[in-house]
Every structure is written in structure tokens, then in C-alpha cells.
Amino acid sequence: MSQPATLTWLAGHEARLGWRDFAALMTAGGRARARNAVILVIAFAAAMHGFAYWIVAGYADVSLDSDPTTLVAITATLLLSWSLLLSQAMESVTRAFYTRADLDLILTSPVSARKVFAVRMGRIAAAAVAVAVLLAAPFIDVLVLRGGARWLAAYGVVAAMGAVATAAALALTIALFRLVGPKRTRLIAQIVAAVIGAAFVIGLQVMAIFSGGTLSRAAALQSEWVMARAPGIDSLIWWPARAALGDGAALLAIVLFSFALLGGAIALFSARFGDHAMAAAGVGSARVRQRRGSLAFRRRSPQRVLRQKEWTLLLRDPWLISQTLMQILYLLPPALLLWLTFRTGNEDYVVLIPVIVMAAGQLAGGLAWLSISGEDAPDLVATAPIAASRIMAAKIEAVIGMIALVFAPIVAVLAFDSVFAAFVAALGILAAAGGSTLIQISFRVQARRSQFRRRQTSSRIATFAEAFSSIAWAATAAIAADGSWFALITAAIAVLILLGVRWISPRQA
Amino acid sequence: MTASRPVSLATRHLSKSFDRPAVDNLDLTIYGGEFYCLLGPNGAGKTTTLRMVAGLMRPDAGTIVIDGIDALAEPEAAKQITAWLSDEPMIYDKLTPYEYLEFVAGLWRIDAGTAEARARDLIAWLGLEAQAHDRCEGFSKGTRQKVALAGALVHDPKLIILDEPLTGLDAGSARQVKNVLRERVAAGGTVIMTTHILEVAERMADRIGVIANGRLIAEGTLDELRVKTGAAGTSLEDTFLALVANEAELVAAA
Q1: Would you give the distance in Å from CA A25 to the centre of its chain?
Q2: What's the mean pLDDT when you consider all of chain A?
Q3: At what angle do helices A332-344 and A153-212 cross, to 10 degrees?
Q4: A291: helix, strand or coil
């Protein structure tokens, strides 16, 4: 056993906290659920391996002597995965800054703060590497099974990507902290993280739209424009791809470089981490003066007061806006495709209707959670002289109103091209938003709005149901826009999902 | 003396169980214009009782009548004349005190002009003028509690239910809250409050109820309680501890 207050002792403490967080996430705090969680993990791993087989089995024979097209495809895949890892790592680093938790204990203890924060950064890196390896494992396993042990090198590449992502996240977040200060860093860092996570996917889709008029990313990577500008086969840019293909020298270089970079970042930034965390902790006590045109009280019905309150709270919280409306980013490529379709007069709009419907369902789920579960003054609202059903109706109206505000312009533009398609899209948006709201009502649990990011962990059934419901309504809208009666089948599936949710929801019991 | 006064709150055979009985066949009668303190050890059932009266929890059995209104049959009518304030002030961080009061007034359907005048008075009364147009997110616990108290009073309730309202307040804020409550009672309002600060009960309460294991074990003025324990001249703390100890012995013997 290590001596107290040493690096290994602190690392052990962090590992224990990390493990307990993970266990709580998997078992929702109940020991009895541990067995179910293990079964679920095994089933999920099996399903992911099946999915991975379908996706990558055909590429297992790709060799080191591959042509530039293959290297471009592998590098783009690694870059895409890395951008998502960077996004996650930035979220973790930002959270470490702004979560007070044991900060007082750490900073008032006689242990070197630098040592403690170095270990904490190490924990963030370990988590990033673990997530990267776990997500990549099914794909790498399939490649190893079909193409041989040389593919095991891909594990090293993925671990290296996790390390570099953490180092970059530390540098980016601390640079933001120094540039814009503690008050704005949380919001900006989270927006930057989300944009980084989405930018690469969106960028590829935009390229694909301009090069081929479709949403396919593969089309963009194989375009003549990209191939003409790709560097020579000996370029350093291809080293991660070559390492993943089993080039030992490239792998060694990539791993050494990545972990040296991470070590350097930790050594460089851990000294000031405590100062930044202290500055971040003081942000909560800052005063914000509110300007308003008229100070006179307005005459409004209780329902209108409730709706207005929901919209005001959301509009005054840039962090929540960034969290909920970030999904709108993914609507940019479909919107671009819509614009091109409108200009050229073809019927590609069928492709984007499910994207819009899916986004509406997901956005409504987040807004419904905020409005229904994330009520910061539940006692006040519950003791008001209004029937509970009218309170709930006002909250649902607030959600649907916000969805209408976001999606009405897209539907209006669609109507210029096809009134029928716009009608189908509008119905799909309403159905998906209504379905997600119903799921949130069925699984509502009182929580603080600040816990928004953890809403998925409080009820995994609700999260999955929300996703499946949105997918089913998206499919229904796409098939209906194509003029097929098969839409009735997918609509029936969507309704069955919602009935199932009502049946198993704790509120039903 | 109290028999001629109108009854503000009456509970009969009020019961609520979780894994064990939290409130057990509780009969309470509180009169209009009375300041009533409900005391009891942790887990005695005080908060559960008050949450049922405020309409936040449905009892398993029994009745609750507020100012002649059956609160279980007509909850909205009962809530219209009731206010609830807990130890943890639940207000909206992104609203200003002024906006919060406008929101509460809207929920209680108070005429905008009347509510605005009351809000201004309350903000001045509680010394919140400087923060009236700041968002609540940076406020101290005491300031937040004062905003929540203003929200509880803006609709001019007849019955104010408070669960540990002074917890965590500094001396100045606590005195302001106590003054506001005293003035409400002087104006004919009724206050029922739980507290662990026995000095507050001793100084402010017209009558005190002591609850243990979900049952009312003693009730009366401080002098009446002293007589009951046979220890005239002792402090409320001694009287309270003696009552609770007696109850514990009875439970143990049973």
C-alpha cells in the first residue's frame, strides 16, 4: 500500500472515485441491478461487434501497401474519431474546473495542489483513453479476427489519440480561461467542444453536398478534389493510418509522441490549475443586473405566466441554450441541401425530412426535461392554486412553442418546394416532439436544471425510448413524403413504443 | 379564550406512512391570528405534516380544513389562501426578485396593480431594494430566503406555513424575517412554523405543539407545557426535552 499524499496514493483515490462513478452509472446505485448491468454490457458488446462486422469486415485485408484512397479514408476516420474525443475531453476538463465538489478540501490540505491536479488531469486522460479504446474495440476485434494480429496495433493508435485529445483539450481550455476569463470560459468551452464534435461531420457533409449533391461523407473523401490535394504516400500525415495498419515503427513513434505530449501538458498546466479552479468557483457569486423596458407588472393568466417563465429561464441561460440547441448544428447540412434542392428543382428533400424530424424529437426531449423535471421551484408551483393538469399543459405548450419557433422557418422553406412534403414534415415534427415530451412526462424525476447534462444517466430507458421514438417518427415521415402507405407501419411502431413507455413508466405504477 | 376565534387550520385523524408511520392520527387546531410553533425531534413528522397541509403530499387518511375549506376536496381554493416556505429557498436563479414576485402573483391570479404595489412594499420591507433588479443567481442564502418569503406574502395569504425558515440565516436576516411574520400575525394572519431554534418558539409562539413519532404529545402555551412537565420556571429547552424523553420512555415501555 502506498504512503498517504504520494502520487500513487492520490492516483488510487482518483481511480476509486472514477470506478464508483462508473459503477453508479451502470447500476443506477443499486447493487441488485449490477447483474442486469453486466448482462446489458455483454449484450451491448455483442451487438456492437455485430454492427462492426457489418461495417469493417470487408476492409480487413487492406495492407500497408495501400493506395492513397485507403490512407485518406483511414486518416479521415481517425480524424473524425479524434474530433469527438477532443470534444469529450474538453467537456471533462471544463467540468473539472467548475465542479466545486472536493476543491475546498484539496486546496486547504497540506498536499501540493500541483500534485493533486496532475493526478486529476491524469484521470481525465485515462478516462478519455478508456472510452476511446472501448468504443473502438468492436471494430478492431473484427479486423483482428478477419485480417490478423497486425490490426492489434490499432489499439495503440486509439490510446494515443485519447492522450493527444486530452493534451489538446487542456491547452485549449486553459487558453480560453486566460483569453476570456472564468466567467465566460464554461459557456465558450462547451460551445467549442460541441462545434469541434460536430464540425468534422458537418464539414464532410457540406463537401459531399457540393461535390455530389448528397449527404454521403464517403463521396467527399473519394472526390477528385480531395485526391488531387492529398500529400505523397511517404508524408508524416499518413503515420497514424500506417500505424493502425500495423507499421511497428510508425506505431512506436505515434505512441511515444502522444504520451510525451500528454505528460508535457500535465506538467505545464497542473501548477496553475488550482488558481483557475479557484477563479471558476468565484463565478457563481457574480451579480447580473437585469434590464427591462417596463417595470409594471403585466396582467397574464397562470398558464401564460408559466409558459413565459420557461422561455425566459431558457433564453437567459446561454449554457442551457448551447446544450439544447447544439443539435441545430446538425441541421446545417440538410438546410444547405434544401437550399440547393430549391435552387435546382430536384426532389432530394425526401432525404432531409427524417433528419429534421429526428432533430425535433431530440430537441423536444431536452426542452421537455428542462420544463417538466428541471423545475427549480417545484414546491412553489405545486402549492399554487392551479390544477396540476393545467400546469402540465402550460409546460407542454412551452416546449411545443419552442419547437415551432425553431422548425417553422425550415418547414416554410420546404413548402416553397413541395406543400405536401412540408405538411408531412410538420406532422412528423409535431409527432416526434410530442412523443419525446410524453416520454419525459412518463419518466419525470425532480431535479435541478443544472443537472441537465446528467439527465440521460437518470433514466436510460427514457433516453433509449426517446431515441427510438424519434427514429420511428423520422422513418414514418420519410416514407410518407415518398407517398408510400408503408408509413402506417412505422407510425404504428412509433405508437407502440410510446404505449410501451406508458406501460413501464414509474408514473403508471 | 381561543374557542371564540375562527379556526384557521384543522386536521383530523391525519395519517401518512412511508416505511413506518410518519404522521399518526394527528389532530391539530390552529386559530386565526395565531402564531403556532410545531416542535419535535428529527424525524418526528413535522415536515410531513406541513407538506400535507400545504398540498404537497396527499395523506393516507384524515381531513385537512383551511379556513373552512376542505383542502383535500378543493385543493385550489385552499391553496389560494395559503403560502408555503421551506428551509431551502426555491427560487429561479435567472429571474430577479421583482420578476419572481410578478411570476408568483400571476400564479395566484392577483390583480397586476395590487400585486405590483405589494411587491414594492415587500421589497422595501425586507431591505431588498438594492437587489430588486439583479438576477437571484448570485444571492446569499439569507437574501434568497427573503425573496422566497416575499413570494410567500405577495398574494396576501391567510395561512402561512413555514418549515425551518430561519435555518442558515444570519442574525440580521433572521430578525427581519421574524419581524415580518410578527406583523402578519398582528394583521390577523395565521402562522404555523417548525423550528429547531427553541428560543424563537419561546419568544414568538402563541401556542406550541410538540410532536414525536407522528403524534401530538403536548400542546399549549409555554406556561401550560411547563405545568404539564411539572417544572415551572424552566426554559422551553428543558420542557421540550422532558416531554420528548417521557414519550420515548412510553414508546419503549409499549
Answers
A1: 17
A2: 81
A3: 30
A4: coil
Q: Can you give the C-alpha Rg of chain B in angstroms?
A: 18
Cβ neighbors of B221 (< 8 A, separation 6 or more) are B206, B207, B208
Q: Calculate ∠ Cα A280-A284-A285, nearest 5°.
A: 115
Q: Which of B50, B93, B108 to mutate against chain A (most A CBs within 10 Å)?
A: B93
| pLDDT tens per residue, range A302-355 | 999 999 999 998 888 776 777 666 666 666 666 666 666 655 655 666 667 888
> How close is the nearest chain B Cα to the Cα of A329, in Å?
26
H helices then E strands: how many in chain B?
9, 10
Grid look-up 463521396 returns A219
Angle formed at CA B41 by CA B38 and CA B43, multiple of 5 degrees:
100
Minimum distance, in Å, between the CA of residue A304 and any CA atom of chain B: 9
Burial of B150 (0-12, 13-18, 19+ CB in 10 A): buried
Contact present, A245 and A63 (Cβ < 8 Å) = yes
> How many Å lie between the alpha carbon of A409 and the closest alpha carbon of chain B?
28
Those residues whose C-beta lies under 8 Å from the C-beta of residue A270, and which sit 6 or more positions away, are A114, A115, A117, A118, A121
The sign one gets for the Cα dihedral A229, A233, A235, A239 is positive
Place of cell 425550415: A410
Q: Is residue B220 over pLDDT 50?
A: yes
pLDDT digits (tens, 9 = 90+) for B130-172: 989 898 988 888 899 899 999 999 999 999 999 998 887 788 8
Which residues of chain A have a CB within 8 Å of the CB of B90?
376-380
In one-letter notation, the amino acid at residue A241 is A
CB atoms within 10 A of CB B13: 12
H helix or E strand, kind and range, residue A411: helix A388-417
The SS3 call for residue B109 is coil
DSSP labels, A353-369:
HHHHHHHHHHHHHHHHI
Pairing of strands B7-17, B61-66: antiparallel
* Single-letter amino acid, residue B85: L
- CB A483, CB A418: distance < 8 Å: no
CA angle A24, A25, A31 (to 5 degrees): 40
